[in-house]
Amino acid sequence: MASSSRAVVILAVAMAAVLGTAHGASYTVGAPAGSWDLRTNYANWASSITFRAGDQLVFKYTRGAHDVLEVSKADYDSCSGSSPIASFQTGDDTVPLRAAGTRYFICGVPGHCAAGMKLAVKVEAGTSTGPNPAAPSPMPVAMAPRAAGPSVAVPPSSTSGASARGVGSLAGLGLAAVVAGLMTFY
Description:
Layout (H helix, E strand, L loop, with lengths): L1 H19 L5 E3 L13 H6 L3 E2 L3 E5 L7 E4 L1 H6 L7 E3 L3 E5 L4 E6 L11 E7 L38 H21 L3
Parallel strand pairs: 1-3, 2-8
Antiparallel strand pairs: 3-6, 4-5, 4-7, 7-8
GO molecular function: electron transfer activity; metal ion binding
Protein name: Phytocyanin domain-containing protein
Pfam family, one: Cu_bind_like
C-alpha cells in the first residue's frame, strides 16, 4: 500500500513539473516602450520575438481611441477593416495564438492602419520558450514607412515576455515542494 501511494505521489510531482512549464508566453504588443498606438513600429517589435503556438498577444490601448481587428492578408495589405475575422474593443484584449501560421491585425479606426497601426505575426509550431534574442526570427510582412520619425527596436523585457510561463512554472514548483513535504510523512 505504501509503495503504491508513493508511486502516485511521484507521478503527481512529475505531472506538476511538466504542466508548470507547458504554458505559452504572453506578449503585450509593443511593450516595453509602446503599446497598441500610433507611435510604435510593430515590424521592429515583432522581429525580436519568436511567436509559438500556445502563446498569446495582449493588446493594451485607450478604449474608444483604437480597436483591434484580425483580418486576412489582403485586408492587412489594403488596410481594410470591412470584413474582419475577429474584432476587439475593450482596451485590454488577449488573443491566443493556437496554431502555426501568420496572423494579421490592424486598427480599424480610419487612417490608423495607413499610419502604421498594423501587425503581422508569424506563429511557429511548438511549445513556447519565451523570448530568444540570440536567435533571429523571420521578419513579418513589410510595412509602409511611418512619417512620425525613426523608431528604435527594443528587445522584449520580462513584462512583455513569458510572464504566463513563469507564473505557471512557479506554481508547478510550489506544488512539487508541497508533495515532496507530504512524502516525508509516508
